[in-house]
Amino acid sequence: MTDKSLMKRTIVKEEIQSRHLKESRNLRIYLPPSYNELLSYPVVYCQDGEEFFNFGRIATWANQLILEEGLDPFIIVGVEVNTKIRTEEYAPFGNRFDAYLSCFAEEIIPYVEEKYPVRQDPDQRVLAGDSLGGSVSLHIALRYPELFHRIISLSGAFYEQSQHIMTLETDLSWLNIFMIVGLQEDSYTTDTGVYNFVELNRDTKQLLEDRGATVHYEEKDGRHIWGFWQKELPSALMYFLK
Fold this sequence. Notes:
By secondary structure, this protein is of the alpha/beta class. It has one domain (about 5-240): Alpha/Beta hydrolase fold, catalytic domain (Rossmann fold), CATH 3.40.50.1820. The chain contains nine helices and ten strands. It has helices at about 5, 50-55, 60-65, 85-90, 95-115, 130-145, 160-165, 195-210, 225-240; strands at about 10-20, 25-30, 45, 75-80, 125-130, 150-155, 175-180, 190, 195, 215-220. The protein is globular and about 45 Å long. This is Esterase family protein.
């Protein structure tokens, strides 16, 4: 397979109007090779959609997994975010958090499912995110377990408020989460403070497992950057889609 064939990607841009967020929101939709609207496809929804496509190279990885590894074709939906208000939408203490979760589940999902032949079983939808995108993906699943069972968390920012919400759960046996964190993320500065992401992820893994969740957990040499996460995306996608 040539690099040229892997770079030939079909990406459609969409814009939806959100009554919950009271603004428009841009989406990027990756359609797999030999896309056929008469078929149905598993779907991966990504927070930080622009970064997953630009820095994570997720469309190129998807082409490679489908064309070279024999993975069944799937659709990717990247949900873009304004980085200036990202924390307000992705963190439980943010003033747009509830509105964002409602927008995602009640507006974005129905919009995509009306326009594209994505499968509507919670085991055929995957939520993916990095840092706060990883934690908000989990929060969406916790609030809407009828929609999502499968999460990819790349160095999830599972702050104290997120962990508290998890402690209120009693049965997470329906949840399956792929978690990875870099060992050099033990003192990372964010817009809300300095955090040890290794400890946050270890503690979250234990919280989830104690409540019956299936957790695939890895720690590797790596920092809190896309250079680390990009290389881990193929195995994360394969975990759920093979």
